[in-house]
Amino acid sequence: MNLKELKDLVKDWRVAILLILVVLSVVAIYPHFDDKGNFTTNLQYGLDLQNGAWLQMELQAEVVGFTTDQPIDQFVSNLSKKMDTEVHVIDPTNPTHLEIRKYYSKADLEPIFASEGGKIVSYHQGVSKETAELVKKILENKLNSLGTKDTKINILTDMSNTAQYVRVEMAGVDMNQAKSLVGKQGKFEIRIQTIGNETGHVLYGDAITSVGNPEKDIQRGGGWGVPFTLSEEGAIALQQAAIKYGLTTNPEAHNLIMILDNKTVFDAPMVADAAGKLQTNPNRQWSASTGSGANGENAAQTLNIHLRAGALPVETKIVGSGSVPAEQGAKNKMVSVIAGILALITVGFVIYFRYREPSIVLPMVLINASEILILLGFISAIRFQIDLPTIAGLIAVLGTGIDQMVVITDEILHEGRVPSPTLYLKRLSRALMIIVIAAATVVIAMVPLMLMPLTTLQGFALITILGVLVGVIITRPAYGKIIMQILSK
Predict the structure, then answer these.
(1) pLDDT tens-digit series, residues 274-306
(2) CATH number of the domain to which 450 belongs
């Protein structure tokens, strides 16, 4: 192929798009040497390829189908008081299921429902989809606020669409640290001291809509505090509780208490002028003072985390855990790289054995490698973590990619010789149609696997689907143009 033919080939839109994507992928991956002289990239690695830990936690709650002849609001209120926990109607437009945010067995619940004029129709341990998403968001906020960025949080649901487990994977974190960050996470509550050591409930952490960074209050002696904002409902609940228990008139005798997982994390009286204003108007903007000096600052940092992410609506229980040592992660990474290279080399030998023509084998191998490079660039751009199932998906893409290019080549060389340009285009179209149909079956098969809560296989399914789409849309049309130019010789 002379220079003019090469320029014409590169100018073809199919080949040009392929080359542009390859360049963009290299930029996204950004292979370089860091400040210490170590070779690195922008690729993110999961637990399998570096040290880390995972925890699987059971959500201590249940979703109960019920029937009752009582008014729904009164029935739910009575249940909440009797069980001393939050009880929510999952769908107010169709009040047939309740979410009880405390663990009770079905045997324990049946007499309680019966005493209030209700009957249990179905029972599933876990929480509703909406509560599960709230748990996930809270955990993400907590871990991100602590600088734990390489984290995957997945909700595991059963066939009834009830979320029973939450799985947290943290790369670069050992097991003890993982448990301290996540395992002790509990329910956040604000209460008011009533009489003596007794307290009254005010609100749960889901009423806190935003939390600011710890800051010094210059006007009040330079002490540290954590500003936070309540929802409108939360502000009204605080006002009503403050009036009910006498905080507005005697704040010194009625401390505001914050509790995380049955442990007091803040206990102090409300400032007198702020308490007085609550008598007439609710207030959404607050600041929890933690004291001055280093101790006050440390307390503010800790309270900041609790306010940001301590408001899990339900308690959790660790039911499974595991970790990957740093040495094992590095070994897995090296073995994965070697496996990928060997797979590409092996594919090249097999194709050469079939065609015995280097001018056919080389484009196939290069197109195949470019496909993997594009996928890695996309993974790097979306900050997706590479784990062993993801690598298995990349290797699977190598195989399916070569299969599809063999289909194109064999279809074109159907009679053992290069056809005319018109016949070539017809055969190429027929080959691409076969590939599209085969690709569609792969996508259909992988979509359920990607959507199901099998977290260890989602990476494999996602990469397989992306590999098929990149092949059908980008690399196969480009290969068809390139092989046509080569075979015409």
Answers:
(1) 888 888 888 888 888 887 888 888 788 777 767
(2) 1.20.1640.10
Q: How far apart are CA 13 and CA 19, in angstroms?
A: 10
Measured between alpha carbons, how far is 248 from 277 in angstroms, rounded to an integer? 8
The overall pTM is greater than 0.85: no
d(CA 123, CA 359): 65
The answer to whether position 40 is within a domain reads yes
Q: Is 226 helix (H, G, I), strand (E, B) or coil?
A: strand
Give the C-alpha distances (Å, rounded to integers) separating 429 from 141, 418, 425, 474.
Answer: 50, 15, 6, 15
Tell whether 361 is covered by a domain. Answer: yes
Domain count, the chain: 3
**DSSP result, 126-165:** SB-HHHHHHHHHHHHHHHHHTT--SEEEEEEE-TTS-EEE
- Residue 173, in any domain of the structure: no
Summarised one tens digit per residue, pLDDT across range 102-160 is 899 999 999 999 999 999 999 999 999 888 887 887 787 677 655 555 678 888 887 77
Residues 6+ apart with CB under 8 A from 458: 154, 389, 449, 450
**182 domain residue, yes or no:** no
Domain boundary, last residue among 113, 138, 168 = 168
